[in-house]
């Protein structure tokens, strides 16, 4: 299948191959610049509802003073948590080139978040970072649900992620995550099963995102105090 920037005749303004993936920045007058990784749409400059959605469980539960963002190299989640009043927000993304392109092409999302007080940016493996001993009031999982090992079943990967996240949450802490499109019921059910097996409280919901063709599913989970 052709990537969306081809199907929708979007203008490609930059192509780059990093050490980890192929990056395309395209432009569409309806949503501004769009970020594609390996030809999969990630986010557009108009997609502030995405970041508002994914941080809302942390904000609503007052669990964001010290927050960890796994992925999120576009900077929108980082900006949202700092705007909410986070004292410390640590973003871990494996690809520094995504961060640099976001600063240039996605200012509506990231603003000056990368340079603000309280922001810490670590270019590295977000999954491996969960093995660090630090604990957090809130964790935002803004990565794919595809296994990092080719021989690992997706359900095992999901459960492994959730177990690692739970160990890094402080009492009463909250995780929020992006899941999948509403047209992927199988993956949604796998995520629900993993949440139910790992956390005492959890839920999911859908939100409309300007550049996405389908409603997007988000989820939250909370540990006991």
UniProtKB/TrEMBL annotation:
One of its GO terms (biological process) is spermine biosynthetic process. It comes from the Bacteria. Keywords: Polyamine biosynthesis, Transferase. InterPro entries: PABS (IPR030374), SAM-dependent_MTases_sf (IPR029063), Spermidine_synt_N_sf (IPR037163), Spermine_synthase_animal (IPR015576). GO terms for molecular function: spermine synthase activity. The keyword Electron transport does not apply. Residues 1-223 form the PABS domain. CDD domains: AdoMet_MTases. The keyword Protein biosynthesis does not apply. The active site is at residue 142. Belongs to the spermidine/spermine synthase family. This is Spermidine synthase.
């Amino acid at each position: 299948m052709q990537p969306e920037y081809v199907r929708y005749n979007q203008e490609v303004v930059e192509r780059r191959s990093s050490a980890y993936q192929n990056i395309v920045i395209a432009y569409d007058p309806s949503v501004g610049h769009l970020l594609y990784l390996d030809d999969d749409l990630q986010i557009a400059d108009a997609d502030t509802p995405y970041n508002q959605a994914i941080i809302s469980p942390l904000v609503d539960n007052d669990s964001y003073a010290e927050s960890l963002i796994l992925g999120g190299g576009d900077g929108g989640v980082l900006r949202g948590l700092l705007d909410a009043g986070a004292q410390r927000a640590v973003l871990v993304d494996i690809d520094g080139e995504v961060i640099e392109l976001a600063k240039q092409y996605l200012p509506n999302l990231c603003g000056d978040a990368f340079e603000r007080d309280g922001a810490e940016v670590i270019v590295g493996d977000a999954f491996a970072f969960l093995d660090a001993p630090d604990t957090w009031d809130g964790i935002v999982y803004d990565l794919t649900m595809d296994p990092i090992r080719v021989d690992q079943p997706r359900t095992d990967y999901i459960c492994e992620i959730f177990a690692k996240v739970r160990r890094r949450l402080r009492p009463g802490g909250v995780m929020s995550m992006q899941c999948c499109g509403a047209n992927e019921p199988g993956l949604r059910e796998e995520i629900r099963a993993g949440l139910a097996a790992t956390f005492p409280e959890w839920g999911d919901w859908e939100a409309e995102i300007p550049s996405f063709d389908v409603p997007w599913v988000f989820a939250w989970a909370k540990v006991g105090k």
